[in-house]
Write a structure and sequence with these properties.
302 residues, alpha/beta, Rossmann fold, Alpha-Beta Plaits, 2 domains, four-stranded antiparallel β-sheet, 14 strands, 32% helix, disordered C terminus
Length: 302
């Protein structure tokens, strides 16, 4: 397997707090790698270090054969970063914004590149719309177009679909899958379990440490755990109820959903089956949903 990025023993602290601890990993080329874990676990910092956007305190890194920390500007020139919240000029149309950004970045054949992306990302209907009038769903796709104008080798996305509709999320991920198929390496952090499931490769983090990284399905099957996502009334009481079951390892409420993760056993299954019909229950055979909701199935020291 070809790797686009590799880190070895990388550490980073902010004001005495260890944000990244002894991180060593390799990122497959041309694949979508998802970063999951609780808020503050180090996902964003690690992605930024990989792409020369954040300098570590120690360690080594390679980006397509380039020393990341000796040549950060060169690495950044090969990176698309949608996490920077690309600013659009509200008084310009979508096409005018993309042309302005392409020319300001000295993108070769700017007009042709903009036309290509407009077609590729299915935003033809937005070409003449002022940025001022774009809703959140439309801004997502236009921001993606802006971040890949220079045809980067690696694209980083920090929770890109937060706050958009389900339909927009699904359409956005279809675009990411097409970009990955062209050979682009994509790094994406997410709080949505369905998005994590669509990644080829997963990195699970907690307290700045890597819990596991590798092919998504390998990680899923390595835990032997099962997760139930439960929606309905009085989730706090339900959380306490499930926490009292011996085989349950983690319970957490994220948004309007209670995630219950535990070993596959009759006790857990029986408790779920006995829930009243007013509860909506989804079952997944993985620990991904729990990880995305902010869980770590291994206790890791800070």
């Amino acid at each position: 397997m070809e790797y686009s990025i590799a880190l070895c023993d990388v550490n980073k602290s902010f004001g005495g707090r260890r944000a990244i601890v002894d991180a060593s990993l390799s990122i497959p080329a041309g694949k979508i790698t998802g970063f999951v874990g609780p808020d503050g676990s180090g996902k964003t910092t690690l992605m930024r270090i990989m792409c020369g956007l954040e300098r570590p305190d120690s360690g080594a890194g390679q980006f397509w054969g380039i020393d990341i920390f000796a040549n950060p500007e060169q690495v950044r020139s090969l990176t698309g970063d949608m996490s920077q919240n690309i600013s659009l000029v509200e008084q310009l149309t979508v096409k005018e914004n993309l042309l302005f950004l392409a020319k300001s970045r000295s993108v070769p054949y700017a007009q042709e590149r903009v036309d290509e992306l407009i077609t590729e990302l299915n935003v033809e209907h937005l070409c003449n719309t002022l940025a001022l009038h774009l809703n959140t769903d439309c801004k997502l796709r236009v921001s993606l177009a802006a971040s890949i104008l220079h045809a980067p080798k690696v694209l980083i996305l920090d929770e890109p679909t937060a706050g958009v509709t389900l339909a927009a999320r699904q359409a956005f991920w279809q675009v990411l899958e097409r970009l990955s198929a062209t050979g682009m390496t994509i790094l994406v952090s997410t709080h949505y379990s369905d998005e994590a499931e669509r990644c080829h490769h997963l990195v699970r983090m907690s307290n700045g440490r890597l819990l596991s990284c590798g092919p998504a399905q390998t990680i899923v099957h390595s835990f032997g755990l099962t997760t139930f996502a439960i929606r309905g009334p009085d989730l706090l009481s339900l959380k306490c109820q499930f926490s009292g079951i011996k085989e349950v390892e983690q319970t957490v409420i994220f948004s309007n959903t209670l995630y219950v993760t535990g070993k596959k056993c009759d006790g857990l299954l029986s408790a779920v089956r006995m829930l009243p019909v007013r509860y909506h229950i989804e079952h997944t055979s993985s620990a991904i949903a729990a990880s995305v909701a902010g869980l770590a199935t291994h206790k890791v020291p800070a």
